[in-house]
């Protein structure tokens, strides 16, 4: 489980297909791509449909399991399944197919209990990071080429981690450039805020400025040969 990395909702939405399925849940980000690939499509359809979204509403925050509802026919509790669809590791759909997936005998179980000890929604091996508490925009200007890119990043990321996100635009951004803001070199192992690149949106909101006029902080990349 890798939980040191932070992602924005926009980044999660980029992984929005069954063959590339990320979701967020209670502040964590999960990659269920491999689970979907190795499971019968009908038992992971809810996940496939919800790729790129937050699925916290499916689960009881107290137990971590699906919410329970009472079946009016037998007055027993059952899981409230997402989108009303059959779902992997729930008793409502326990079958020979499910038995093969779970690698255990079919038994009589409470319909509001998982059919395996560690069902997919509790399995933290799918967790790849955290959902940011504050997504913000920054501009990154390459002073050598005059190219500027705007990124939405998690406020908790270090400058080095932001460079990793920016790497798709410039593969030499870490080794070939010095990162600067307001004329000063940035501390690569510190966050934007710790480098005094402040999030000024609360001020703009308080002043009632139109959003299209908000100032976006700009980091300057300076070719290292020019720094000598």
Automatic annotation (TrEMBL):
<keyword id="KW-0408">Iron</keyword>
<keyword id="KW-0479">Metal-binding</keyword>
<protein>
    <recommendedName>
        <fullName>Cytochrome b5 domain-containing protein 1</fullName>
    </recommendedName>
</protein>
<keyword id="KW-0349">Heme</keyword>
<dbReference type="GO" id="GO:0005930">
    <property type="term" value="C:axoneme"/>
</dbReference>
<dbReference type="InterPro" id="IPR001199">
    <property type="entry name" value="Cyt_B5-like_heme/steroid-bd"/>
</dbReference>
<dbReference type="InterPro" id="IPR052320">
    <property type="entry name" value="Cytochrome_b5_domain"/>
</dbReference>
<dbReference type="Pfam" id="PF00173">
    <property type="entry name" value="Cyt-b5"/>
</dbReference>
<feature type="domain" description="Cytochrome b5 heme-binding">
    <location>
        <begin position="4"/>
        <end position="132"/>
    </location>
</feature>
<dbReference type="GO" id="GO:0046872">
    <property type="term" value="F:metal ion binding"/>
</dbReference>
<dbReference type="InterPro" id="IPR036400">
    <property type="entry name" value="Cyt_B5-like_heme/steroid_sf"/>
</dbReference>
<keyword id="KW-0963">Cytoplasm</keyword>
<keyword id="KW-0966">Cell projection</keyword>
<keyword id="KW-0206">Cytoskeleton</keyword>
<comment type="function">
    <text>Radial spoke stalk protein that binds heme under oxidizing conditions. Required for the coordinated beating of multiple cilia maybe by functioning in a redox signaling pathway.</text>
</comment>
């Amino acid at each position: 489980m890798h939980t040191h990395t932070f992602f924005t909702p926009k980044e999660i939405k980029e992984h929005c297909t069954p063959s590339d399925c990320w979701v967020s849940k209670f502040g964590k980000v999960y990659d269920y791509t491999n689970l979907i690939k190795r499971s019968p499509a009908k038992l992971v359809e809810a996940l496939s449909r919800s790729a790129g979204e937050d699925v916290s509403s499916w689960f009881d925050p107290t137990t971590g399991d699906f919410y329970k509802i009472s079946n009016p026919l037998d007055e027993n509790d059952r899981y409230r399944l997402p989108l009303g669809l059959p779902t992997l590791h729930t008793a409502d759909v326990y079958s020979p197919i499910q038995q093969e997936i779970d690698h255990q005998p079919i038994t009589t179980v409470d319909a509001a209990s998982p059919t395996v000890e560690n069902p997919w929604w509790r399995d933290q091996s799918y967790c790849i990071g955290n959902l940011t508490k504050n997504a913000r925009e920054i501009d990154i200007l390459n002073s050598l080429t005059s190219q500027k890119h705007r990124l939405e990043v998690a406020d908790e990321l270090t400058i080095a981690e932001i460079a990793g996100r920016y790497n798709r635009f410039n593969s030499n951004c870490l080794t070939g450039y010095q990162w600067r803001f307001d004329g000063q070199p940035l501390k690569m192992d510190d966050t934007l805020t710790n480098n005094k690149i402040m999030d000024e949106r609360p001020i703009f909101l308080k002043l009632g400025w139109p959003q299209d006029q908000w100032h976006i902080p700009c980091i300057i990349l300076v070719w290292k040969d020019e720094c000598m």
